[in-house]
Structure formats: C-alpha cells, structure tokens
Specification:
Layout: E1 2-5, E2 16-17, E3 21-26, E4 29-38, E5 42-46, E6 56-61, E7 69-78, E8 83-87, E9 110-114, H1 118-130, E10 134-138, H2 141-150, E11 155-159, H3 167-177, E12 182-187, E13 201-203, H4 208-220
Parallel strand pairs: 9-10, 9-11, 11-12, 12-13
Antiparallel strand pairs: 1-10, 2-4, 3-4, 3-6, 4-5, 5-8, 6-7, 7-8
Helix pairs in contact: 2-3
C-alpha cells in the first residue's frame, strides 16, 4: 500500500512560536514532546521519534494558560526537529489567542486508488498527492475492502477491469460499507454499461491536469445517484 500526503494550501497563515508540552498518541503508543510553533492549519512539534508521512495522531497540547487542547492531526512532513502536523478538522481556537483569530483548517480529502496496473496507481498517487490530497493506493481489491473497514474514504478512484474483481463491483461493496464515499471509474478500454452506474468516468491514458480536474469535480459536488448504491426507501 502506498500513501502520499500533498502540500497544504499555498496561502501562508500566521505562525506563533510557543513552547508547550504536547502528548502525541499514535495507535497504542504515547510520545512526549513540545510545540515549536502553531498556526491555523497545523503545529510543529519537537519529538525524538520520527513518524512516517501521513501518520494520523491525536495531539494533547497543554498551553501555559487556559485549558488543555485535544486535536486530530496527520503528519505532513518531518524536518530536523520533528514532525509538522496538519489539523484534520479545525484549529483549536486557543492556539492563536482566541476564537475570533482561529479559522477552520483545510480539510484533508482522502482518496483510495485501486488499479492492478501498479504504474498507473503510482502515477495517480504522485499526481493527487502533489495536489494536496491524502492518497492511499493498492492493486488488490480485497485489500481495498479491508482498508475501508478501518477508515473513511472520501473518493474511490478505481480501474474497471481487474483480474480479481470488477471495479464496479468493488465500488458497490465500498459504497455499501461507506455510503458517503464518492466513486470515479477509470479504464483504458471501451466498457459497456458505465453510464448506467451513475458514476463519473475518466479514460486512460490521462494526464495530471485531467485527473485532478475530474477528482475536484467529484469531491466538491454532490454525489450523483448510482444504481449500485443503497436502495431507495418507498415513502408511499
């Protein structure tokens, strides 16, 4: 499985240099460090242990004044002093001196790429990761099903024709597990019945710009109904 986290939004946000104790919970591990600086979108932490990019963690920060802060975050990058975290939901208001100064941080959109052609999968991971998405990737549909049981996925980018499972069948199963997940199909062949699924489609080979435009269209608009989605209830 490949994971890549792209850059946060390019617009610079004010950062405040502070030295506050922080506890980092990663799975069953508890690590201790201190903050170096904070902003509306994230926090830099001095930590002895290195953490892989895209590691999710719960931060417990103790400011010199006010109440302790709990925040969900993900590792954007590591530098010489420690990890730089991006907040997954919104910046705790007290980090920057009050609720009026803090604004919601950009939400990290999670995309799962499933393609038996690992070259295509690697291309999609790099392209979407560079555009600022958190990207997971696998060539195995069975592994993809295991992955979505443990975490929410905003968008499934899936190849239609795969040896172990048809991409439409995989999409149907994932949507059944995670009804809010959007789907973008892809294929290098002419496949009948794609329009009937109600899911958008991108033809291979595609370039970086086309892929990102299709993904943005999927993740910023309401999900189109799909004949493979959950059945409608009869309200009559």
């Amino acid at each position: 499985m490949r994971v890549k986290l792209g850059r946060p939004e390019s617009r610079r946000r004010p950062r405040t240099k502070v030295r506050w104790p922080v506890t980092v919970e990663v799975g069953n591990r508890v690590l201790h460090g201190e903050t170096l600086d904070v902003s509306q979108s994230g926090v830099k932490v001095r930590l002895a242990e290195r953490l892989p990019d895209a590691t999710r963690a719960r931060l417990h920060i103790v400011p010199t004044q006010g109440c302790p802060i709990d925040a969900q975050a993900v590792v954007w990058r590591m530098d010489a002093e420690g990890p730089v975290f991006l907040f997954l939901k919104k910046a705790p208001a007290v980090l920057l001196g009050g609720a009026d100064e803090a604004a919601p941080a950009p939400r990290v959109v999670t995309i799962l790429v499933v393609d038996d052609d690992q070259n295509v999968g690697a291309f999609a991971v790099d392209a979407l990761g560079s555009a600022g998405y958190l990207v997971l990737s696998t060539h195995d549909p069975v592994e993809a099903l295991r992955m979505v049981k443990d975490r929410d996925i905003d968008l499934l980018l899936v190849d239609v024709i795969m040896p172990l499972m048809d991409g439409r069948e995989l999409a149907r199963r994932i949507v059944a597990l995670r009804p809010t997940t959007k789907v973008l199909l892809m294929s290098g062949f002419e496949v009948s019945g794609l329009r009937e699924t109600g899911w958008p489609f991108v033809a291979k080979p595609f370039g970086v710009t086309e892929l990102i435009e299709r993904v943005e269209a999927c993740t910023t608009s309401k999900r189109r109904p799909s004949v493979f989605g959950a059945p409608r209830r009869d309200t009559r």
